[in-house]
């Protein structure tokens, strides 16, 4: 039983991580199919062992939390997610359950293509657009009204003066996505991974003018009628939306039985690649609105609808070459160069091979036929060698850096090869400068890959400190820079001088230190001087920092060249701000808190308060936990705290503890 409880906890943590990547960071790392399989397993285990099911499980929630960059709004009518049918047997079972509820009636269903974009809710009062919001977690969304108004096919005034809330998907056409990425590459901007990411990133801009410059579109697929004047069927609602001025997907079909739905899904599995928008499945809904109301909802999804997901595509192609890429920390990554092939709607020419252990496992070399697929229908990946392919041996592990010729090293216990020539290898220098300027780093808009390559090749930038010595004259020597863009870039460089300490530490490209780890260190040690002089014991005392990370940080700051680099940055006016000015006292110093259950305010408010008093937040209960702050329906963390004898606080207890 303990094994199943642990598996449920592991699945919840993994799914929450991928929810954050998908909904908050617009950066999915696994395929929808892989995500759905994890989600399905979790639902099944929670059904089998309900004593381990908790209210904070992903199976009980929709989407993810609202970004702090936007004003929050509570939806008048909750937005739900959809349960998935990953095969035709699942689809039939869903239909049969509905049919059992109405054994003597004919059940009509509507089939619609599932658009891969960003779900939004648009509220109209007397026919005028009042609020545009993202779905968020289904209960609270982000107010993006000004940005929504930039989308040309969203009407700001309806034909009739009606009150209505319209749901739909904001998307970017594939052709527009390709043009945008081409432009981003030319100007050194960030390229988007896929059309959905481009749509989400373009819609969630602080500056609505940027949204207006991107080619975004909207498909309406549902509506709520506050005045109780809803049409009787979903199909009629779609027609009403068209009359009011909305674009409704033209490939909607009314079906009399589940067999015709199955045929619809089979047809579109391949035909979808001819469309100028991304679609990853089919949404099937009961047509009769009164039956929808009778069937109702689970905690996260309507019972009267399901999403049939297209299976992930796999295809065979030829491995033409293996290219070696050197990253900002010197890590060597093998990249498969492929005979171009159409996969999931795009031409694939390259795919990651991760590391040389993976090449050994796959037993591949140049000339082999291989099977590739797309993770998250985004990232091409070699999954195996094709059957009956000739034996070309295994691609040999290199001994020297392909860029600078230094002898490669492989740290004990790691699978990655590294170039140790950190300060002279051109690939590492360029990679570190690009990362320093990135959104995760110091966020210097306009200093992208192409411009960095040109600046390093021409000797204008030799390391990151040189960025802060650039003049307009220097920038005008670069091929892609014009006078106006040079002025904008210099302004962005100046603004970056006072970024937060956590951004500064992140941007230094310290091995094993990403933005979350940098935040832990910055919030605990509070100043650059303390971080630079920190011992391994001080760093490992920080909850979430292990010995390998601590050793990497100490090694970085002990190198003379890195000390000199930081001195040059400070001399050039870079002054990292202390830990987001978060800490106000040491009242809770060295105390670790775990928060669980539903509280009177958003969880982030309590986390911020604890950190401001010097406390630490952990995601799991252990013997090192000092307090567990519990709201309503706390779940398994409450049980574990009780079993370990950890002090459990309610909100009143907590406020007494901090005297607030």
Describe the model:
It is a single chain. By secondary structure, the chain is an alpha+beta fold. The protein folds into six domains: 2-60, Helix hairpin bin (Helix Hairpins, Orthogonal Bundle); 72-309, DNA ligase/mRNA capping enzyme (D-amino Acid Aminotransferase, Chain A, domain 1); 314-385, Beta Barrel (OB fold (Dihydrolipoamide Acetyltransferase, E2P)); 426-496, DNA polymerase, domain 1; 501-581, DNA polymerase, domain 1; 592-657, BRCT domain (Rossmann fold). 37% of the residues lie in helices and 18% in strands. The strands form five sheets. It has a five-stranded mixed sheet, with helices on both faces. Strand 17, helix 22 and strand 18 (616-617) form a beta-alpha-beta unit. Helix 12 (426-437) packs across helix 13 (449-457). The model has no long low-confidence stretch (mean pLDDT 85).
Radius of gyration: 27 Å
Content-based structural category = alpha+beta
Which stretches are low in confidence, meaning pLDDT under 50 for 5 or more residues running? none
CATH topology descriptor of the largest domain: D-amino Acid Aminotransferase, Chain A, domain 1
Which percent band covers the strand fraction?
Answer: 15-25%
- Supply the number of structural domains: 6
Approximate shape: globular
Give the mean pLDDT. Answer: 85
CATH class of the largest domain: Alpha Beta
Total of helices: 24
CATH architectural label of the largest domain: 2-Layer Sandwich
List the strand order in the largest sheet.
Answer: 2-11-10-3-9
Terminal CA distance reads 42 Å
Largest sheet: 5 strands, mixed
Multimeric organization: single chain
CATH superfamily of the largest domain: DNA ligase/mRNA capping enzyme
Number of strands: 20
Helix content: 25-40%
């Amino acid at each position: 039983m303990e094994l199943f409880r642990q598996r449920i906890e592991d699945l919840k943590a993994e799914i929450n991580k991928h929810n954050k990547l998908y909904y908050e960071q617009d950066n999915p790392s696994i395929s929808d199919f892989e995500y759905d399989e994890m989600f399905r397993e979790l639902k099944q285990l929670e059904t089998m062992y309900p004593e381990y099911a908790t209210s904070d499980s992903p199976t009980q929630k929709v989407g993810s939390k609202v970004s702090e960059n936007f004003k929050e709004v509570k939806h008048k009518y909750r937005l739900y997610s959809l349960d998935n049918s990953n095969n035709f047997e699942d689809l039939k079972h869903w239909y049969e359950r509905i049919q059992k509820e109405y054994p003597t009636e004919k059940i009509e269903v509507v089939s619609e293509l599932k658009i891969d974009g960003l779900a939004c809710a648009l509220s109209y009062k007397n026919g005028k657009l009042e609020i545009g919001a993202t779905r968020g977690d289904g209960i609270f969304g982000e107010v993006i009204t000004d940005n929504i108004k930039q989308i040309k096919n969203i009407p700001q005034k309806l034909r009739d003066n009606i009150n209505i809330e319209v749901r739909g998907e904001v998307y970017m056409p594939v052709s527009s996505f390709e043009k945008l990425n081409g432009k981003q590459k030319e100007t050194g901007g960030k390229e988007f991974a896929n059309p959905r990411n481009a749509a989400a990133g373009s819609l969630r801009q602080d500056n609505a003018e940027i949204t207006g410059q991107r080619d975004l579109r909207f498909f309406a697929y549902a509506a709520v009628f506050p005045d109780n004047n809803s049409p009787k069927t979903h199909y009629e609602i779609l027609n009403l939306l068209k009359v009011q001025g909305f674009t409704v997907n033209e490939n909607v079909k009314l079906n009399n039985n589940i067999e015709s739905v199955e045929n619809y899904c089979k047809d579109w599995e391949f035909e979808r690649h001819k469309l100028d928008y991304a679609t990853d499945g089919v949404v099937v809904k009961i047509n009769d609105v009164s039956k929808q109301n009778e069937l109702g909802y689970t905690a996260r999804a309507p019972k009267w609808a399901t999403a049939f997901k297209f299976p992930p595509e796999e295809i065979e192609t030829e491995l033409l070459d293996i290219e070696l890429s050197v990253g900002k920390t010197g890590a060597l990554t093998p990249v498969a160069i492929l005979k171009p092939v159409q996969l999931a709607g795009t031409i694939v020419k390259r795919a990651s091979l991760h590391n040389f252990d993976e090449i050994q496992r796959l037993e591949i070399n140049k000339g082999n036929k291989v099977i590739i697929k797309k993770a998250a229908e985004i990232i091409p990946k070699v999954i195996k060698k094709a059957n009956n392919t000739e034996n070309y041996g295994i691609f040999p592990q290199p001994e020297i850096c392909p860029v600078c010729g230094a002898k490669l090293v492989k740290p004990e216990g790691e699978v990655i090869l590294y170039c140790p020539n950190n300060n002279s290898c051109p690939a590492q220098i360029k990679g570190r400068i690009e990362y320093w300027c990135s959104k995760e780093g110091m966020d210097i808009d306009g200093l992208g890959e192409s411009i960095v390559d040109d600046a390093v090749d021409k000797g204008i930038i030799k390391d990151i400190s040189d960025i802060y010595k650039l003049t307009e004259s220097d920038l005008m020597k670069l091929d892609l820079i014009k006078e106006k863009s040079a002025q904008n870039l210099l302004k962005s460089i100046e603004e970056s001088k006072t970024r937060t300490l956590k951004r500064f530490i992140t941007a230094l490209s310290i091995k094993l230190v990403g933005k979350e780890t940098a935040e832990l260190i910055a919030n605990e040690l509070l100043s650059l001087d303390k971080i630079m002089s920190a011992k391994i014991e001080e760093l490992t005392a920080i909850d979430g920092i292990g010995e390998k990370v601590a050793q990497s940080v100490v090694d970085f700051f002990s190198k003379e060249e890195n000390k000199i680099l930081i001195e040059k940055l400070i001399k050039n006016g870079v002054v990292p701000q202390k830990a987001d000015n978060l800490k106000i006292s040491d009242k809770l110093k060295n105390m670790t808190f775990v928060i669980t259950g539903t509280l009177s305010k958003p969880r982030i408010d309590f986390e911020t308060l604890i950190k401001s008093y010097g406390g630490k937040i952990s995601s799991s209960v252990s013997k090192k936990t000092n307090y567990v702050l519990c709201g309503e329906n706390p779940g398994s963390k409450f049980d574990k705290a009780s079993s370990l004898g950890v002090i459990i606080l309610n909100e009143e207890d907590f406020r007494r503890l901090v005297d607030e």
